[in-house]
């Protein structure tokens, strides 16, 4: 990509602003371009455009017409598929094959999936006999909230943004989106697609910028925003919730995790090793669902540690387009400093470093990138900070366990509650254990496999509410009950 200036998209037009910030490649520190930063004025304009669209042509779209529009957006992304892949790779440094098969593919699928859902969505209907003997019926209609603010993180930029934009538009809302300052590119391309396929002006707006005292905060504090949906850190979720309390706005939060993988001695050993390798190191560990705590039943513990170490040491780290590359850089040098801080803390807390624990050396431009080695620890106490806090890097700790009760207690002893994965051939045990884990999602003999119709979200610090399938339609719409006495 040549040097670019990424602009906001407000009321159907691309607009700039005087303040800008750098868009930098995490692979080699190269400057990719500049991004406009929205101040209060640009955020006001975007929210007002969104509110105005609720009284314009967008408001007259039927559910079927909105579904058709979502399909056209999906077609539009597919037409520019490789541009989206390049944008995602440039911002994040991830392997090209991952951007193709996961990020951009899921972006398309999100729009198609919610197009199908909103076509099928019905309401509720009840009949009752009233005191005067007439048959009264009540039914529900779905209406948009109005203006929905969508704030997304950098780890799966297009996937997580479209996961919210698609159902919000499907339900007839207008949206103002603010992507992460670290990943502004694919969201800007999405705005171009919205423009190309004729999304009515004001229905989709994009503002760039940071969180505190910038676009994110201005947006969540704006009184004309009716609902806020956010994916990111738990602490940011608390801040946004305080902003949303003013005006009693609805929120939906998908937040951090400190997820466990539990490997029972009766598992398919090779499948479990491959599964935990994926769940710990996919996207350089920068997926909210990644496992950072691995518990292995004692009879296979030593063998499992050795096999995971061998697997981690075979992972190829490098440029996004290198042949056979498994892991790219982290998102930024700032984030690498945080991850390396945990690598150091773990040693201070008494961890044995089974593999990794540092920065790979390449002897070329990649040495200026934000790379870290895939890392495995053992020997930490359950109350160590590295066992309690989310690192969000390619790292896991492996501990042995002796019984179901013990491992359940240790898995649940967390401030987070997003996801867990179990590896066992005993499905009876899998059912018994799964329902007692306090998380939003449990995988058995797999990880990251999502049926988009199922509810998704977290317990405790990991989130508030559920999205996915009809749960998304419920969050993005207001239900009105109409009671008729004929
Ligand atoms: P972050 O909270 O730092 O930032 C997320 C977004 O919020 C960015 O767009 C940022 O600019 C904005 N923001 C920051 N402060 C704000 C404020 N005060 N007001 C309004 N907006 C603000 O998170 P991140 O570092 O970008 O993302 C990583 C985190 O996201 C991890 O904790 C990860 O677990 C979590 N995550 C959760 C899920 C999930 O589905 N549960 C999915 C992906 C990532």
UniProtKB/TrEMBL annotation:
<dbReference type="InterPro" id="IPR016162">
    <property type="entry name" value="Ald_DH_N"/>
</dbReference>
<dbReference type="InterPro" id="IPR016160">
    <property type="entry name" value="Ald_DH_CS_CYS"/>
</dbReference>
<dbReference type="InterPro" id="IPR016161">
    <property type="entry name" value="Ald_DH/histidinol_DH"/>
</dbReference>
<dbReference type="GO" id="GO:0004030">
    <property type="term" value="F:aldehyde dehydrogenase [NAD(P)+] activity"/>
</dbReference>
<feature type="domain" description="Aldehyde dehydrogenase">
    <location>
        <begin position="17"/>
        <end position="482"/>
    </location>
</feature>
<keyword id="KW-0520">NAD</keyword>
<protein>
    <submittedName>
        <fullName>Aminomuconate-semialdehyde/2-hydroxymuconate-6-semialdehyde dehydrogenase</fullName>
    </submittedName>
</protein>
<feature type="active site">
    <location>
        <position position="254"/>
    </location>
</feature>
<dbReference type="Pfam" id="PF00171">
    <property type="entry name" value="Aldedh"/>
</dbReference>
<dbReference type="InterPro" id="IPR016163">
    <property type="entry name" value="Ald_DH_C"/>
</dbReference>
<keyword id="KW-0560">Oxidoreductase</keyword>
<dbReference type="InterPro" id="IPR017628">
    <property type="entry name" value="OHmuconic_semiald_DH"/>
</dbReference>
<comment type="similarity">
    <text>Belongs to the aldehyde dehydrogenase family.</text>
</comment>
<dbReference type="InterPro" id="IPR029510">
    <property type="entry name" value="Ald_DH_CS_GLU"/>
</dbReference>
<dbReference type="InterPro" id="IPR015590">
    <property type="entry name" value="Aldehyde_DH_dom"/>
</dbReference>
